[in-house]
Structure formats: C-alpha cells, structure tokens
Amino acid sequence: MNIRQRHDSIVRTLRRNGSSTIDDLARDVGASRRTVLRDISALRDEGFVIHSESGRGGGIQLDPQSMQTTARLAVSEVFALLISVAAMRAAQNLPFSDLADAGLAKIEKSLPSDKVRDLRRFLDCLHIGQLSPQQDLSDLGPMDADLLPVFETGFLQRVHIQFDYRDAKGNKTRRKVEPQAMLILQPLWYLVAWDPTRGDFRHFRMDRISRPECLEDEPFRWRHVPFEDDVCPYADLQR
Length: 239
What we know:
Largest sheet: 7 strands, mixed
Helix content: 25-40%
Low-confidence stretches: 232-239
Number of domains: 2
Strand content: 25-35%
Mean pLDDT: 81
Order of helices and strands: HEHHEEHHHEHEEEEEE
Number of helices: 7
Number of strands: 10
Structural class: alpha+beta
C-alpha cells in the first residue's frame, strides 16, 4: 500500500471495529509499528480525533464523529509536483512558469516547518541533466506508483530499499541498495544508489523497478554522488 491507501485503510478499520491495536493495524496494512504510528500522527494532523489508551484492554480509537478537516499534502505529493515542474523546465517545455512557481510557493507555505525541511532535503537529492540523443527509448515503460512514497522514506530516514529490477536484457534480480539521489534525463528517470554487494554506485531506470519496499531497520550513511559535470543539482526550487 502507498501512504494514502494505508491512511484510508486505518480509518476504515477504526470506523468498522471501533478500536484496534497498533500491532493489528500494522498487520492489516502490511507495515511496521513505526510506520503506523507515523500514519496515526498524520491522520490527527488532518483532523481525525484518534484516542490512544495504554495498558491491557487499551488501543487506538477513532471518534465516530470526527472527519478529515484539512487537505494537507504529503511531502511526497508536493515533491511529485516539484520534480514534474523541474523536468518540464529542463526540457524547456514549461508554459506559464511564473504562475507555476507562485502556486508551488503557496503550497510550500502551507506545509508545517518540519515538512518543509523534509521537502528541501528531498530536493537536495534531485539532479537533472540532458539525455544523449543516441539513447534507445524503444522499451520505455510506466513507473510504479509506489516508488515515490518508498523513496521518501528511504531518502529522509536513510534506510535501505529493495526492489525487483529488470535490466536491458530482460533479466530480473532482487536488489537491496542505499538510495542516494534521483537523476532525471528526460524522459528517463533514474534512482542513483550505492549497491553494497558491488561496492559502487549504480543507476537504476525507474521504469524497470517494481515491487519497491523500505527496510526501515537497516540505516546507511550518506555518500557523495560523483555526477558528471553536465549533471547539476536543480536548486532553483529551494529558494
């Protein structure tokens, strides 16, 4: 499940059952206790009144009269908007750019300060360059919708992620890596990651990644990504 699906599932479960435990909710949505606790906090921020009682017989309860009162955007949702604008600008195909920038600035102002900090840290990982005209695009496919929320957790919490990867010859492998950067060479998007098994950086085309997931108990250290001179951080949107 992605973040929004988990939130919807948690609310449905609490409305249906009246109460539940963190362990039961984690099992229902297929996530860790820490992830569910973070989801509960996010739902409270959105206006849901959720009570918690400790001890035997306690658990999580949703006030049956409460409902979502705010339409807060998740960092991953705002980041999706920002990188889309960045990619269009890099391709010199961004009409009404002033209005787009003004709208994005308003969205950023609506976020809590901790979310703005997360957003800027996320943007630090974004790089944009130019694709070689010799690049073969005949097998270009869609990207998995679950990638961005997995990347958000992987980048911000600095934990390993794993996924199935299909190489140019169609061979599939299960990879576990340290996410270090995102590279856009429009229309190709890459995850730049340190591969511990190979002891080096690897570029993974995002349209070849499937079944991504975070390994929240496996942190890693940040590394300097040695991009080529013609691939520079896209910093304009951080102002």
